[in-house]
Amino acid sequence: MFDQIILFIASLAANFFSALSGGGAGLIQFPMLIFLGLPFGVALATHKIASVALGLGASLRHLRENHLERRFSLIILGAGLPGVVLGASIILAVPERLATFLLGVLTLGLGVYSVFKPRLGLEHTPKNREGRALGVGVLGLFIVGFLNGSITSGTGLFLTIWLIHHFGLDYKRAVAYTLVLCGLVWNGTGALVLGILGTVAWNWMPALLAGSILGGYLGSHLAINKGNLWIKRAFESITILIGLKLIGG
Fold this sequence. Notes:
This protein is mainly alpha-helical.
């Protein structure tokens, strides 16, 4: 029972901040599962399935705002899902420490990049939706999908910043796409692959799912009410802090 309470509180906090900033739940939740005694592969599969609940909780709030365009949503899903499947299929063969270090460098870079771009993500200016520019965007989505399926922890942050940088979304819309499409569909696909290839700690799942759904809903509600500048600052703070922690080990 004590472990279940710890799981619920940690999951609630991780998914609250993830929904607020557009990713990062796994950078708290995944290591916590390892700390509590799960082997790496079991923790990975268990976290991936629990992360689908974050997408569900966030979707319950974001879909009320009607920020998602159908065509653009299909582009994100079509480009990213093959990468998710490929990444999830090979992750268990990647050295854990190397993956963690690279994830830290990439995450820190996202936060620093956003800090030095003061206007980044504050205005919604859609771009690069046709021709060669769209092709570059699709390639970027595939790579982010691959990272989501393989590194798995915190890669929603990568999708958020790619949607802002390349496609011109503001933070509020980018976070909505990330939490609904990446959180629900991408993570659901990765969870299916890892569930088949790996082992899941099903007895840990109730507390993780409850914390994920509630945290996802509350974080999304606060982000929607506070607006782009507030989300941008949350994104920068979380990515820089988590990146430094991962690099330091």
